[in-house]
Amino acid sequence: MKELSNCENCGKLFITKSQRVCIRCYKESEMLLKKITAYLDKNPKTNLHTLVAATSIPGKKIISLIKKGRIRLGPYPALHYPCEMCGAPVMNGKICSSCRNRLKEDLRKAEHAVIHEKAASAVYSLAQTTNRKSGDDGEN
Fold it and tell me: Which controlled-vocabulary keywords does the entry list (predicted)?
């Protein structure tokens, strides 16, 4: 079913079935992609900085195409982009493996703390319940 939607690139209203960008932005993106891949095919060892300088395409646009899976980095080992947390080189995802591991460890520690907090709370509640049943309400 056709619907009206705003283009995620330019904001213009357009009729869509499932696409997120208008036809003009789609064609522009395809043209940029062809320019990038043509340069990369001739210069497979290029890095992002050189690619930006050679094609005059903003780095953010190139990174966006990479993150959307439109540019595969496998054949271009020097092409990477900065981690969103620390700036280290990344070839897939938004963050580097070091930051990813640190986040996993922080999450594991937070989960561990929550489990211990719940356990301590359950023990405290159990102790209060036991004291009430035995007639000791903790007040002297």
Answer: Cell projection, Cilium, Flagellum
